[in-house]
Amino acid sequence: FALSETELCRAFGNLMENACDAAAEAEEPYLLISGSENEKQSIIIIKNSRREGEIKKRNGQYLSTKHQGTGLGIISAQKTAEKNVGSLITEATEKTFTAALFLKKNG
């Protein structure tokens, strides 16, 4: 990867913590993790259940359910991905949240 092991662990850890916390509050908790790769990038997808209701945003950033302000885990994972020529794409539905982390491979 173009990023260090520490950066990878931090980004993955932040996304996993958010997913586990959200799934724990869901009526039917679940967490799915999948991945794939090609010669240029690796993709890690984390999909989890969550409690029903609107996910609030301000200025395009998700608001935290743990404290006032924006969610730091998603912002941190997104900045790490972008710093390393990758990206983080998120999608929220009424009962699920998905985070797809695209990471450039060295070479």
Molecular structure report:
With 107 residues, the protein is an alpha+beta fold. The protein contains 2 helices and 6 strands; from the N terminus they run H-E-E-E-E-H-E-E. A 4-stranded antiparallel beta sheet has the order 1-2-6-5, with helices on one face. It has a two-stranded antiparallel sheet with strand order 3-4. A hairpin with a 3-residue loop joins strand 5 (87-92) and strand 6. The longest helix is centred in the first third of the chain and has 20 residues, at 5-24. The model has no long low-confidence stretch (mean pLDDT 87).
* Percent in strands: 25-35%
Mean pLDDT: 87
State the secondary-structure class: alpha+beta
Number of helices: 2
- Overall shape: it is globular
Strand order of the largest sheet: 1-2-6-5
- Strand/helix succession: HEEEEHEE
The radius of gyration over CA amounts to 14 Å
Uncertain regions spanning at least 5 consecutive residues: none
Distance between the termini: 9 Å
Helix percentage: 25-40%
According to DSSP, the number of beta strands is: 6
> Sheet with the most strands?
4 strands, antiparallel
